[in-house]
Predict the 3D structure of the following.
Amino acid sequence: MKRIALVLLSLSAGAFAIGSGHAFAQVYPTRPVRLVVPFAPGGAIDLMGRYYGQKLADIWKQQVIVDNRAGAGSNIGANVVAIAAPDAYTLLINSAAQAISPALYRKQPFDPVKDFSPVSQLSSNWLMLVGNPKLPASSVKELIALARSSPGKLNYGSAGMGSSAHLAGELFKSLAGIDIVHVPYKGDAAMMPSLLADDVQFSFLPIAIALTQIKSGKLRALAVTGTRRVAAVPEVPTVMETGLPEYEFSGWVGIFAPGGTPRDIVAQINADLARVLGTPEVQERVRAWGYEPVGSTPEEFAAKYRADIGVYRKIIRDAKVPLID
């Protein structure tokens, strides 16, 4: 009888622990949540942060406050989350720059793996190679030929050191064997006036940002960086198709919580994001941006994140990209 009583007591305690954890997860959040965007306002990640933030606010019945902390290849914003309390009231939305920075910067103020809890991969994405209309090149082949004829004369802009656009440009430079000059800015929005003014002649832009300028005739689409064409712009070929068959560059957007955030809270945010991503309205919007909606478990995203740190480290090494102190 004593043994049975102990077993029942153990089961009761386990049930209480599970129930308590469930109840704790259900009351999150009880106050506004800060969503850190590690880029300047007006860029693609900012656009998505505000969109997803509002969708989560609708579910949570709590305000989601977007906090732009740009700089250092997204390291400044990421560090805000890395040092935040592990309670998920501070979250990070970031691009693959989160996996690029550990390979590009000699030192970071945080541990890129231990200090973050991956929540969900929201989407996969590619970039679009665009040029100012004054650029005398309307294809990848013509751009490479122009760069080879004028070494060091063409400038390409990016959202900053360590951004996806920076790395996409350096990979392009390496594989094409050309001499082009990287000009970093504090975000896509800050770079756009220079691109439109022909201070930088081309860039690798998030498709969501490029489409508006292309439709207005202010920029020219040259190619997309994936292995296949994008549904939002099926007429635009890939870089692989049009002059550089070995070139492919893809990225993602995901949500992170501070390292050590309780598993049940991470699971709840993941489930709420799955609800958001599962709606036809959101899937249509994401595809219109030129992205592919994903949604993943925290474990799947954590595995991809760790693997991609290695992938980007190899790209940076092979392209001989100088490391940043």
Remarks:
- Confidence is low (pLDDT under 50) at residues 1-25.
- The radius of gyration is 22 Å.
